[in-house]
């Protein structure tokens, strides 16, 4: 479709009646031939990964699908269904929530790893620089709930180690993440282990994904949990089931409170 | 987590500090062990599919990822990025568009197949009944752009046939879809072939997915294309790039038009 | 702009460089001359209401702006901000929630009033017919929280009465709503008074707004509260403040629960 | 409601059964007593403005309601309806688009005015500093379509002048905006007049609104046009009406284009 308008231009898809090509591949040659993770890779960045690369990539997609109904995205999905939204509307409401605080942590972690990987300065100096720019929180490390450790992270890092051993990836970003763990433990006097964002960021960085895709791929992965909870809520029925557990009331701090 | 509140209740996820179980499976036993399509299956409906089932399921997920920038969802994603939205916001804006017209066709097709499969009445009668309820359009058949045929559909049906031959699925919903094709061709005097919605609906029905998940799984699949286009647009830069190609103006039909 | 394309056509706006007309009125003649409620009326349905009509309309817009942080729309807005969304993203996430359960009640109430107003059948029969189609719940009546009465409803109905007295409106839809109140009280043996949706629906019906706009106008009105809460939350700061009050955990009902 | 939980806390609303207070005012004392713009003011920042203040505020709300179907927000709303979304879903999809590029310009303009108003440095220096931080584009000035001038801006500035004369506002932010106009005209050798974002920013700044509310108030105002177009599209019917005008095709720039 090499014509007419510079309105949108794309490297991704070309179509004519009866024909669809994705990154140059006829769709009918992809269906049944590439796995879904390979297709995600092909679409988002081009090229078809080897099976070993796709398997490591897949592990990151599998790991982040859900973190329970108190995660804002999942809560939003379930609320949306009780407000009458269809599954697409519930998924949209939920994915919108995966902004800087949730979706952004993985993106920032990839950026931080790259900065460390390309710098000559000592790690402590780079962390200090990062904090001057972004605040105290180092993205991808520590967890307010999973103490002592997020069970997903060591499993993912173990897969990266295995992939480094067989030459699928270099292992340098796993080393960088472990370096940060060490530095933070030294600072705090207790473990601040890599979390799910930090571990998936290692995988995305090892496989050469640019940082912004870490956010997008997290959204894709979490969409699985979002859909699952939205559908489960739809099956349960229930209208109007707000975010409010029984007996809950918020605190009013303004003028002229109601006496009760 | 068997306590406290009936606010939300779920069969999907259980958590404690350091522990996450999805449908009863510790997450660290799933990561690296199940494929992403198997995880999607486990999350949305429970159970882990066989590899043969997962492969057929995967084909449906691969097939629907993109249909070009003129598809409203993809267009919305690209517009959103040029308005300054982050990738999660662009994905949300786009998935919201996958309502009854787009996301709903697959869901309706599964419903129609089930109705036909469980009815004693002749096909023509059931189609008539469907049209009385839903209008003339039979969901999952025909395509305004892909003439004579959507290249994705025969490939998907071929995979269903192969899966029926090796006993992975029964093949009865493929037969139902072909029956509808025959009936519509007879009615119109020209082919009205099964399209992407109709073909993925055959797969979802063969594999036992309930109809509403056809919509949700389409949203998941299309999210891949949405993310890819949003990210490509983000790389291209460009602000404010509305939906308007050069020279385009809308038609004003109200009172007191501007003379020009 | 009377040319070119039938892509979009609109009675609402016409533009040329240096010129903007809304429903035929140059924008510079509207600014400073019509009130915001008059502009809302002009834009959504055409025509500029009298001041008396605009005042009654305005009362409905003022009444529904907020119903506290446990209302799903307000909760979604505040959650969104703690997830890092900008105000527009928070507002979008929140307005999406105003679907059939919240936004739809006013729309349905207008439809019900019109059905009653144009029917020859006795009220009890029409309510029965409505319930056969829509379920037991009569939209616009009763409140799970505001017992005995929603303080907004009698005030709004009082304004309708005053407007009927001075000839601004007919008062027939207020009479219809009171008829429904009477019928429901008779059925239940206790008051089931008109609520905010039912009372604003009376105003919209009296003023000649079509039913779907009742939903849209509610979204506009509630957007004020949504914005206010989103902005307040933004000022408070706080990251990640999910929907989960302290100590809250959901109920897991699936296989293999975590022992704790 | 002075109890229980620090989950959400708010100065905005307090409720008990049968009672609703907004910023301390019983809702039934506000309905019919304050105008919709006064209510927006009370909700977003507290306090009830004088009628003169409310009138100036209202002019800004009236001015920005619509900018035609090629504006991304309006286009998204109309697309959403043709995809089957309800009015709330269409409004949400559209408001989500009002991010940094559209909604953010007004917010940035207020920030810039405040910076200029509180600085000792000469204007040229502050503009240079702004551009070093934000890029060449000065928010609130110039228009790619409305040459020579956006008809809304001079009308709004005229109302500010009148309000300054009668003492409602100081007029200092109007003077700042005109100073910027002068500086930009000097730079470019042609007029770069204040646009709708810059003019409404003057009003919001004169009235003491903080910068982020400029974005939120623009979203409220534009929601009126969004609703109007969504409802008009719903009345027109039409399914699947993508963003694509007849004959439109995008440009494919990737490998292996389809020969045609």
UniProtKB/TrEMBL annotation, chains A, B, C, D:
Entry annotated with the keyword Transferase: yes
Keywords annotated in UniProt: Lyase, Transferase
One of the GO biological process terms: tricarboxylic acid cycle
EC number: 2.3.3.16
MF terms (GO), sorted A to Z: citrate synthase activity; lyase activity
Domain of life: Bacteria
Signal peptide: none
Family: Belongs to the citrate synthase family.
Name of protein: citrate synthase (unknown stereospecificity)
Organism of derivation: Tateyamaria omphalii
């Amino acid at each position: 479709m090499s014509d007419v308008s510079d309105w949108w231009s794309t490297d991704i898809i070309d179509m004519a009646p009866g024909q669809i090509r994705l990154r140059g591949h006829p769709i009918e040659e992809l269906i049944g031939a590439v796995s879904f993770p390979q297709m995600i890779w092909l679409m988002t960045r081009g090229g078809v990964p080897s099976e070993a690369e796709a398997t490591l990539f897949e592990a990151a997609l599998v790991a982040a699908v859900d973190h329970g109904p108190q995660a804002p995205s999942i809560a939003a999905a379930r609320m949306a269904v009780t407000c009458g939204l269809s599954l697409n509307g519930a998924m949209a409401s939920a994915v919108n929530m995966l902004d800087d605080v949730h979706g952004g942590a993985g993106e920032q972690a990839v950026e931080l790893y790259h900065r460390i990987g390309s710098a000559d300065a000592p790690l402590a100096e780079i962390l200090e620089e990062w904090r001057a720019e972004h605040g105290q929180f180092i993205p991808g490390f520590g967890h307010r709930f999973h103490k002592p450790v997020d069970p997903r992270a060591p499993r993912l890092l173990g897969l990266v180690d295995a992939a480094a051993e067989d030459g699928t990836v270099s292992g340098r970003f796993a080393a960088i993440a472990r370096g940060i763990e060490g530095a933070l433990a030294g600072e705090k006097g207790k473990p601040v282990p890599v979390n799910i964002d930090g571990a998936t960021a290692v995988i995305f960085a090892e496989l050469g994904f640019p940082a912004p895709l870490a956010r997008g791929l997290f959204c894709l992965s979490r969409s699985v949990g979002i859909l699952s909870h939205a559908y489960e809520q739809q099956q349960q029925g229930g209208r109007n089931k707000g975010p409010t557990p029984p007996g809950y009331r918020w605190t009013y701090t303004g003028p002229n409170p109601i006496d009760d």
